[in-house]
Amino acid sequence: MKKVIFFIIALIVLGIGLAACENGGVNSKTRALITEPTLTEMEINAWPMSPEPTLVPIYRGRWEDDGTIQLFSTDPNIQGMAIEGFVFEEGYECKLIVKESSYKNPPTDFRNQWYELVKVVSKTKVE
Question: Is 48 helix (H, G, I), strand (E, B) or coil?
Answer without folding.
Answer: coil
